[in-house]
Amino acid sequence: MSIYKKFCTEITDEEGSLKKITLNYPDNFNFGYDVVDAIANETPNKKALVWCNTENEERIFTFNDIKIYSNKMANVLKNAGISRGDRVMLVLKRHYEYWFAAVALHKLGAVMIPATHMLTVNDFVYRIKASNVKAIICTPQNEVPEKILSALNLAEMTAKLWCIREDVDGFENLTSQVQSAKSNFERVETHCNDPMMLYFTSGTTGYPKGVIHDHTYPLAHIVTAKYWHQAEDNGLHFTVAETGWAKASWGKIYGQWLVGSAVMVYDFDNFDPKLLTAVINRYGVTSFCAPPTVYRYLVRKGIPSMPTLKHATTAGEMLAPEIFRKFTELTGLPLCAGYGQTETTLLMANFKGKTPVEGSMGTISPFYNIELRDKSGNPVPVGEIGEVVIIPPENGKQEGVFCSYLDNDEQYDYVWRDGVYHTGDAAYVDENGVYWFHGRFDDIIKTGGFRVGPYEVENILMEHPAVVECSVIGVPDELRGQAIKAVIVLGSGYSPSKELELEIKDFCNQKLAEYKWIRIIEFAEKMPKTISGKIQKTVLRSQN
């Protein structure tokens, strides 16, 4: 029996479609002890993690391995003074050490802050200061240690620093310390409502917000793994995401392990569709999830036979209907889209037991009570666009929805106004009960599977002496879903030219992580604005 059944009651119909699910868990529920260690104690040789990289290195870990390595790492961290409530940043790409570290931090009751290696020094400065990190564990690759040391210096802060696998100046070698650490770890008492994880999510009108989830968050991903990804007990699930993004929590650890599936990890820097499909076939992947960008590449480059693959899912941005159709033609598998936020788990999807509707958000997860409402808070009729809102249960505790914004109660209260959680996303439902995404109420750009807040790019743009005013938007792009476009008003003494366009792009892109690069520049004489002087991004987008 998969361990997830210990923590929920589910009702399904004859097609296997989920009708209702409720969670049951003790006050001290902790994923490290109650899931990872419990599986290890019952079935120590059950496969948990299959890892390989572009250098043809390979490691396969059982749940007992994960238990032992996480215990060893927890002992190292505890001996260094890391304890319940401390915030620890992980910048570990797709290295297998991420899984040891995540489980170790959960066992300690520390708060994990996943971050991508693509962050710039300034990105690290902001996150380090905002979260007041006590420690950072990082990869030796991509100049990440150097960027972290520079960021700490600029932030005028100190933190306990570990790097994996190599000796790096200014960092302790966590790998060597783990090797000599004790493999037993006494349970630290934590509470299910304690903060467990902090993600920074891109903001549209300010710096990235810190989204905090508690220890019930992994259980809310049972629906994600079983009924959307259709991960199987003793199967092998492969989500492409890097560990710095929330999608890793959706598809690379919690729900998958709860339903008994091993996780496939391919450690790479540069995406190659041929290598990706080779990994699927070499290891016998049974379920696969990737952003639309990956499917666009696969369809364009050609997809080989993948006989073990039973289910494919996608999320993160809109995908053209012809990609859905071509993928199904080439593989025989329907491509099932899903929808949710960093602040939540899976809210809507093309779920198991229901015929997928290409291009749609599918139907509402039975785990949530969701409505579409107008700006006055009234439910909208079929076919009309409304905001996706979550109505909490009567007891007020909605697992899977974040518990706070970091040091921003005002913003938290705003999104929870009128007793419901406002997603800021617009959708409509058709006469068949299928939901369709209709853009965002905010201005997040989704490019190549990444979320980019315009404010971060605009800040860099304004540093260029020629730029007086600017606005950054996402415009349709066949390859990336959206490309980042900057609309710029020039200062006196500057005239639009191809040379100036290239100069501004180079100036900004050297300071931005690659996924935030400006791809298009348009010079304008003036910006469309509201009466209060705010730039109207909706007008700019409508002109494209």
Can you give a write-up of this model?
The chain has 544 residues and is of the alpha/beta class. Among the domains are: 27-215, ANL, N-terminal domain (Rossmann fold), CATH 3.40.50.12780; 445-542, ANL, C-terminal domain (GMP Synthetase, Chain A, domain 3). Helices cover 29% and strands 26% of the residues. The protein contains 17 helices and 28 strands. The strands form 7 sheets. Strands 4-3-13-12-14-15-16-17-18 form a 9-stranded mixed sheet, with helices on both faces. A 5-stranded parallel sheet has the order 6-5-7-8-9. A hairpin with a 3-residue loop joins strand 26 (467-477) and strand 27.
Would you spell out the secondary-structure blueprint of this structure?
Elements: E1 8-12, E2 18-23, H1 31-42, E3 47-53, E4 58-62, H2 63-79, E5 87-91, H3 97-108, E6 111-114, H4 121-131, E7 135-138, H5 144-155, E8 160-163, E9 172-173, H6 174-179, E10 195-201, E11 209-214, H7 217-220, H8 222-228, E12 236-239, H9 246-251, H10 254-258, E13 262-267, H11 273-283, E14 287-290, H12 292-301, E15 311-314, H13 321-331, E16 335-340, E17 346-349, E18 363-364, E19 370-373, E20 386-390, E21 404-405, H14 409-415, E22 421-429, E23 435-440, E24 445-447, E25 450-452, H15 454-461, E26 467-477, E27 481-490, H16 498-509, E28 520-523, H17 537-542
Parallel strand pairs: 3-13, 5-6, 5-7, 7-8, 8-9, 12-13, 12-14, 14-15, 15-16, 27-28
Antiparallel strand pairs: 1-2, 3-4, 10-11, 11-21, 16-17, 17-18, 19-20, 20-22, 22-23, 24-25, 26-27
Helix pairs in contact: 1-2, 1-3, 2-3, 4-5, 12-13
